[in-house]
């Protein structure tokens, strides 16, 4: 069992150069492909805290375009990363990430997010846009799309209080599919699941996703209107701009520090 | 910890007269305000069982109008009560409570319901209309809006069987956010949560609520049509009118007694 | 307690001939009626594995037509069966089962499914169409309607991996209302629940179901379009037809064997 896991992790961490032609290692994405499963490690070398910023988002948009036109060769995509924190406050187009996340839900492949480390804001919305989520010991902080998974009551509590939620609690309430004590167990479970799903024909995966999306996904119009009404209307306002400025000061331009490592407790420093 | 809780409870129970100008103690609502949090104790002196009747609903409608026009001074509202039982069978306008509950979901403030004691019928719909719910040892009995929180299957079971559900079970299935063993722990948790949420700017709370409502709340049309199709069509029918009459007899006009204290077990007395 | 359960089971298993005039024992359905509760045992004598095939579906359609025109005499319907496995691959009209399942959600009676044994594919969709579900030790395999009960994340995991899920896990995530260790406890709980619901007037049951359906059920159009877009578009394709052919070979025309008893593990034999 342990040996098997070790082999899996090794495969996991080694990009296969032969595949680079079709699924290249972008600046921020390292890809490896094997038996219908594409593993994508998000590693933002432009940021000390692996920010889900315009570099990651642009690279993801390119990858998704390739996957969307996929010839059924890849049937499962596993996204992983050590940390995926806050939204890049300097991103120019508010609707770009909304379109990106919608396009992820439209992929013909099954998508799995592996969470190891802090995942907040747009980083968490990215998790929500994947079909499934698995975590080891990670603090998660929700944003609006969370409500599709855990319901109104808990979403209001977690988002309004801007609390960091541990992976075990997240699994109990349905935020992630399951939580694991160790990184090894996490990757072993996810790789076995991905291999299992990849057994099935691509057409079956597409049909299943279409059916589940038809019942559980808000319409694209709702999401775009939501982004326009809420985010676009909120972000330019003085209190939010003030909080952003203070945030950049306190975090020394989004680098490692108390605010990044313990956002839940430190956030009050932004408002007094 | 215990000392802190004791102080909290003291604050909790004392209305601040200085605030009466803007948030008056209505006949059935006692209000206290502190650091962006408005605590509202529902205490219906017209009823021996704290009925959620026309007095409470009218006072709430006035309070909500004030809150709706709020100048961002109040950012969190905590509603509490010892018991909040059945619907007032004599209420003249079926659509008034529907509009009232909808308006609560529209408030710019975060709303938290604290449940201590029996909560049933329209009393439970009021809980559902708040953003979050926390309970200590309380029997709850569901009504239709419950399905938004706990799903079709359990809602059918609880509502069709008219069962009293304990707070611990309610927390496990998502009916309330969390259940606590003691009143002290309950209030301590809620006051800390309210204080945390009140840290954030009012605009952020509004935007978060707008976003979550967009995805999780049925449209106003669905709710109004539902009330017209179901409640308004049902209430005037002979079997419901007969059950109401028998209910008033058995409860001695909705006073304390076996039916009120143990509705789940006693309800069969209405039908044979 | 045990004696009471024994009596219940006895009633359960004996069809009452006197009732046959209105609720006949169809070829595949054995019915017994008592105090407003109709018990329906699905026993497909045309199939060695109790297939949810055209015989069962036709008999159910007839029963549902009778129940739909019910004179309020029957207020609760309990469906049970030992096993209810895969979809009949030879069924001529893809939209017939969609209409059948929709009509079950429209019944004026409360409907309860009792699960004992393997329940997969259309058999699970039948479970989903009932108001409530209770299980003892049974492997369940989900299909698309599952998402209404357990959310996007877990539905994707279970359906895409085509995994058999045990009843205990199913209860934890909301797939079934509750799981029981023994058949006796299961039937005892369900019969007590059915008797409790049958206490209430038929008009109240109808109104409750209408209200919950209004909020939690996808529209008929969504379901029909879903069936047309997904199932009707998928089933005639070569990979699905190939998988069906292989499935019939491997299962020796859907009879008892390793594939039937352990579908989750054996399914890979269909694809390599």
Summary, kept brief:
The structure is a homotrimer of 272-residue chains. With 272 residues, chain A is α/β, with parallel strands linked by helices.
Please, could you describe this protein's structure?
- The structure is a homotrimer of 272-residue chains.
- Chain A has 272 residues and is of the alpha/beta class.
- Chain A has a single domain, classed as 2-enoyl-CoA Hydratase, Chain A, domain 1 (Alpha-Beta Complex).
- Chain A is built from twelve helices and eight strands.
- Chain A has a six-stranded mixed beta sheet, sandwiched between helices.
- In chain A, helix 4 links the parallel strand 4 (110-115) and strand 5 (132-135).
- In chain A, helix 1 crosses helix 7 and helix 3 (95-105) packs antiparallel against helix 9 (220-234).
- The radius of gyration of chain A is 18 Å and the shape is globular.
- The termini of chain A are far apart.
- Chains in contact: A-B, A-C, B-C.
- Chain A binds chain B through residues 144-145, 147-148, 150-157, 159-163, 173, 218, 222, 225-226, 229-231, 233-234, 237, 239-240, 243, 267-268, 271-272, and chain B through 110, 131-133, 148-149, 174, 176-177, 193, 196-197, 199-201, 203-205, 207-212, 214-217.
- Chains A, B, C: Keywords: Signal.
- Chains A, B, C: Residues 1-20 form the signal peptide.
């Amino acid at each position: 069992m342990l040996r098997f896991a070790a082999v899996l992790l090794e495969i996991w961490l080694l990009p296969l150069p032969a595949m680079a032609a079709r699924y290249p290692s972008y600046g921020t994405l390292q890809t490896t492909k094997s038996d219908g499963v594409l593993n994508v490690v998000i590693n933002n070398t432009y940021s000390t805290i692996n920010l889900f910023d315009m570099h990651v988002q642009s690279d993801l948009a390119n990858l998704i375009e390739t996957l969307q036109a996929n010839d059924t060769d890849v049937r499962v995509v596993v996204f992983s990363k050590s940390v995926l924190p806050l939204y890049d406050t300097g991103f120019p187009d508010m609707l770009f990430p909304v379109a990106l996340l919608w396009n992820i839900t439209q992929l013909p492949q099954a998508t799995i997010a592996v969470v190891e480390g802090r995942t907040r804001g747009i980083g968490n919305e990215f998790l929500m846009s994947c079909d499934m989520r698995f975590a080891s010991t990670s603090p998660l902080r929700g944003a609006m799309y969370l409500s599709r998974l855990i319901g109104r009551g808990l979403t209001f509590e977690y988002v309004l209080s801007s609390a960091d939620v541990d992976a075990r609690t997240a699994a109990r309430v349905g935020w992630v599919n399951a939580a694991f004590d160790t990184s090894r167990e996490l990757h072993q479970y996810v790789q076995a699941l991905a291999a299992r799903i990849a057994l099935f024909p691509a057409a079956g995966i597409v049909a299943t996703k279409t059916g589940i999306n038809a019942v559980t996904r808000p319409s694209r119009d709702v999401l775009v209107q939501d982004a326009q009404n809420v985010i676009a209307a909120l972000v330019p306002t003085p209190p939010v701009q003030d909080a952003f400025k203070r945030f950049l000061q306190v975090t020394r331009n989004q680098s490692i520090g108390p605010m990044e490592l313990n956002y839940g407790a430190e956030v009050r420093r932004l408002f007094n």
